[in-house]
Amino acid sequence: MKNNKLFKVFSVSLSLLGLLVLFSGFIPKDTIEKPKIKQPNIIYILADDLGIGDLSIYNENSKIQTPNLDQMAKEGMRFTDAHTSSAVCTPTRYGILTGRYNWRTPLKEFVTWGNSPSLIQKGRLTVAQMLKDKGYKTANIGKWHLGLNWTMKNNSPEFDHFSDKSNRLNFKEIDYSQPLKFGPLDMGFDYSFMIAASLNMPPYVYLENDKATMLPTDKTERNRKIHPFSSWIKGDIADDFKHEDVLPNIVNKSISFIKENANKDQPFFMYIPLPSPHNPVLPIAPWKGQSEIKSPYADFVIMIDDLMGTIFETLKAQGIDENTMVMFASDNGFATTNDLKTLRQKKHSPSYVYSGYKGSYLEGGHRVPFLVKWPEKIKPNSISDATICTTDFIATCADIIGYDFKDNEAEDSFSIMPLLTNEGTYLRDATIHHDKYGVFAIRKGDWKLIVSPNSGIMASGETKKHKGVSAEEILYNLKKDVKEKNNVADQFPEKVKELKEILIQQIKDGRSTPGKVQENDAISGEWPQANFAFKD
């Protein structure tokens, strides 16, 4: 009897199962829930003043060996024609986070200081905010150098200058005991650990989640020297701040963040702007004295490469290497203050075959190493000769997560995903360069036009105001003249006209991407370097 009942129950169950299988074929596919594919983790590592010739993967005659970054290139894609949006650091950082050319802001030349207000304005979309809104956990760990809105003592007025040298050492009214009024946490970052500006610029305090980890109790000695070419400016310093430890601390914080967030359901985005190899050059043991050419700068680059290796190893050890996109770039070219004389004597060329250095509109000022690794998407040992710009980062991330920009967002950013995956078309047609003094250049194909260079620096690439007279326009064909020695503007007036018209249009339109015309930010005073764009 019992067996009979069991048989009946079993028969009914089989019948129901058969009906389910039969009718499942009629259930629309849209209603069947598919397993969610986790978005990739995204890490952007930005070196400071690292020349394209300082990586041995780029420079066959390099006297500095960078095996970890070379391996990154071999595992992913190496770009040979990548450019920063400016030849100095603050503007490039602005472009990376916002996808907008830096000269559209009130900062038309030079850089911000440790007490400058935020260059990124409230309401401006950043890549961190965009990714956070799409479910990413976001972190900023490193050198900020984009200005910060400090809390002031006794209701003192906030700083309102960006690059005023006369006011750069005024810190007495900053209330370090209070959080920033406007900082990375207000721009989409969930976590932040940083220094305010370059490692040679006060105040020398760590800021964790927009608040000083320790209040400054002293001032540094002015121009304290570690090497003849390595010093920093006198200013407020906290007891937990040692210049030599800043780079290792940033890397250790980055590794901790990776381990804490590696295998959670939520993807993460990390922006890691390194403070090095920018002056002061501070290699420590075991890297100090280890370079072939016995140069502190070369030691420092080797130290960076080794520490980058620890980050790459951490990703693999956590099992997230395959679905993590890592980008590595520099914020501009090599800085001549980093013992260029010794490097030349040792036959090491930090700008590789290019003319110019940091600050210059010449290629060595803004053509930088640019590596991308993402094993799930990018074929190993890939090389791209496409002309790209660091402003393209936010559009690339938008492409990954499926975000559509509003007209007032990422106005100068084009996704490089078509280049990384070899699918689709990269849409950047022209790239605008900008030098230390605000001189414009524009690149399209093999041609590069420098406009009104006599308002800034010499065509030789010297980063100082010149007293002589130079040509009103300088045109180079980079395919034939990669060292930029022969001005052919007189021979190709139509090309000069074409490039100048594109430059003027993209300045006036407030954007270089398709969309509604936008306003460039207002400035106080004149903007002489761009006057050519508004003449009748």
TrEMBL record:
Q: Does the keyword Thylakoid apply?
A: no
The family database entries (Pfam families) matched by this protein are listed as:
Sulfatase
InterPro entries found in the cross-reference section: Alkaline_phosphatase_core_sf, Sulfatase, Sulfatase_CS, Sulfatase_N
GO MF annotations, alphabetized = arylsulfatase activity; metal ion binding
| Sulfatase N-terminal domain residues | 40-403
Q: Which UniProt keywords apply?
A: Calcium, Hydrolase, Metal-binding
Keyword Calcium annotated: yes
**Which family does the similarity line name?**
Belongs to the sulfatase family.
Return the protein name. Answer: Arylsulfatase A-like enzyme
Q: Which organism is it from?
A: Winogradskyella arenosi
The organism's lineage is: Bacteria, Pseudomonadati, Bacteroidota, Flavobacteriia, Flavobacteriales
